[in-house]
Write a structure and sequence with these properties.
The protein contains 14 helices and 19 strands. It is α/β, with parallel strands linked by helices. Bound molecules: ligand BES and zinc ion (2 copies).
């Protein structure tokens, strides 16, 4: 995919945007449309064959001066960047369908507050739409190479930067998706650590990974217990990026890297168990976030921790009733081996807290209850820090990813007290299962460290019915954009 801005191009193919002003019955066209095709479109509109709906598209082949793709923007007043991503998806799909490989796009014809935001969102939406997972197919379809020539009346530095930023961010999201889409027999903990190292090449990222012996030595008994049922060794992945003065506190990301969750001895039912290869999507979001932060060269210090493990019912697996001790000394009775995400995150959160960070954000496909609560539109997040809450809501608005604060209070904390140990990994009832999971995690975060937990169980995959630039089946890369935005906004 090649994007240029006012570059020299031989192509006469062009995108023409058309829309209705709110409450108006007339169409508005961007200046590039040909008079004949424009009047055709107007006639179709009068006949009510087309409505100028958002995302409606009509392709005019061989119009006198190159092909024209008309794209409806609905009742456009000011369009949000997220709407622009969706429009970009429409353009991508149509070009692919019509086998058009180069086109001009008058970016300023999209009514928006800020043209450079529009441009970045367009690039993102376009690249996100082009993602296909073909790694394991005999015939790997080539992704359609296209040359996109954005046109603008006036080039400035921020417009130029928008293209590069959009490319880096979309690449980051697509990388997270790829990690998630890979099957569990390939993307095991060792491989995930390899991928974290690979993505750091050519950047300032420092990546290390601990093996089983080192994890045991570091007193991560809660984490180790989960991996004991598997023939695959666990890995503890650490990614460090220093983009600010050494005196600046780092921000920390923690991600659940459960490369396959069978449930362990508390085994899951067979239907849809294959989806549990996605149980590392919190981890993949965090790995991709770090790669993106480094490529954008953000002025921030950031560290990520990804405990990577399988959850299998092998002979040495955790048994219901077992008690294990986390790195901070708290003992945990394991009453359901399928509540394993919180067990591996516990040790990672203790370790992250030791870095004395400005804040910690973790992402995890933690509970089925999260899917029931919010479906696949919003990522639920839990925090007791109002400032961090506002910071997250702002980043979510800017990134275009929907996040929604969920309640976390002392009632949930009480539910996680153990009978035979300090804590239990399973609340007495299923109600508010995502909140009790969050309350469990909170025990492992250092006192007074602002912390937020993002449960991506509903948003990490199969969101294509909601987002036109995401696949119906497959990983979404949820939270990469928001986490990068949080790092970008951090002062
Ligand atoms: N990885 C699952 C959560 C999950 C389930 C995510 C379905 C996405 C779709 C997690 O490890 C799990 O199994 N959680 C249990 C916890 C329960 C036993 C307390 C759950 O949600 O059922
Ligand atoms: Zn589980
Ligand atoms: Zn899990």
């Amino acid at each position: 995919m090649k994007f240029t801005l006012n570059g020299k191009t031989a192509t006469n193919n062009k995108v023409c945007f058309f829309y209705k002003k709110p409450k108006s019955t007339n169409l508005t066209f961007c200046s590039c449309s040909e008079p004949e095709t424009k009047s055709d479109i107007e006639a179709l509109f009068k006949a009510e064959t087309i409505q100028a709906d958002f995302g409606e598209s009509l392709f005019y082949r061989n119009s006198k001066d190159g092909h024209e793709l008309f794209v409806g923007l609905g009742e456009a007043s000011k369009m949000s960047p997220e709407q622009v991503r969706s429009i970009a998806a429409t353009v991508y799909k149509k070009l692919k369908q019509e086998k058009i490989t180069d086109i001009r796009i008058p970016i300023e014809a999209i009514p928006a507050k800020d043209n450079s935001q529009t441009l970045q969102a367009f690039v993102e939406g376009f690249l996100l739409s082009s993602y296909e997972f073909t790694t394991f197919k005999k015939e790997r379809k080539k992704t359609s190479e296209m040359a996109i020539h954005f046109t603008t009346k006036k080039i400035n530095a921020s417009l130029k930067k928008s293209i590069a930023d959009g490319e880096i961010i979309a690449e980051g999201v697509n990388f997270a998706r790829w990690l998630g889409d890979c099957p569990g027999n390939f993307m095991n903990p060792t491989q995930l650590a390899e991928e974290a190292k690979n993505c750091a090449k050519g950047t300032k990222l420092k990546v290390t990974s601990w093996n089983k012996a080192k994890i045991i030595k570091e007193n991560m008994d809660s984490f180790i217990g989960v991996s004991n049922g598997s023939s695959q060794e666990p890995r503890f992945i650490i990614m460090e990026y220093n983009g600010a003065a050494a005196s600046k506190k780092p921000v920390c990301f923690v991600g659940k890297g459960l490369t396959f969750d069978s449930g362990g001895i508390s085994i899951k039912p067979s239907p849809r168990m294959e989806e549990m290869k996605y149980d590392m999507c919190g981890g993949s979001a965090v790995i991709a976030t770090m790669a993106t932060i480094a490529k954008l060269k953000l002025k921030v210090n950031a560290i990520a921790f990804v405990p990577a493990s399988e959850n299998m019912p092998g002979p040495a697996a955790n048994k219901p009733g077992d008690i294990r001790k986390a790195r901070n000394g708290m003992s945990i009775e394991i009453n359901n081996t399928d509540a394993e995400g919180r067990l591996i995150l516990a040790d990672a959160l203790v370790y992250a807290s030791e870095k004395k960070p400005a804040w910690i954000a973790d992402a995890a496909t933690l509970t089925g209850a999260m899917m029931i609560a919010l479906g696949n539109t919003h990522t639920g997040f839990f925090t007791r820090y109002p400032k961090l809450r506002d910071f997250i809501n702002k980043a979510g608005e800017q990134s275009g990813e929907d996040v929604w604060q969920m309640p976390l209070c002392d009632h949930h904390t009480k539910d996680m007290k153990g009978t035979y140990a300090d804590l239990t990994n399973t609340a007495p009832s299923r109600e508010a299962g995502s909140a009790t999971a969050a309350a469990f995690l909170e025990n492992f975060v250092g006192k007074d460290i602002p912390w937020a937990h993002f449960d991506v169980a509903g948003t990490a995959w199969n969101v294509g019915n909601r987002l036109s630039y995401a696949p119906n089946k497959g990983a979404s890369g949820a939270m990469v954009r928001t986490f990068v935005q949080m790092a970008r906004n951090h002062r």
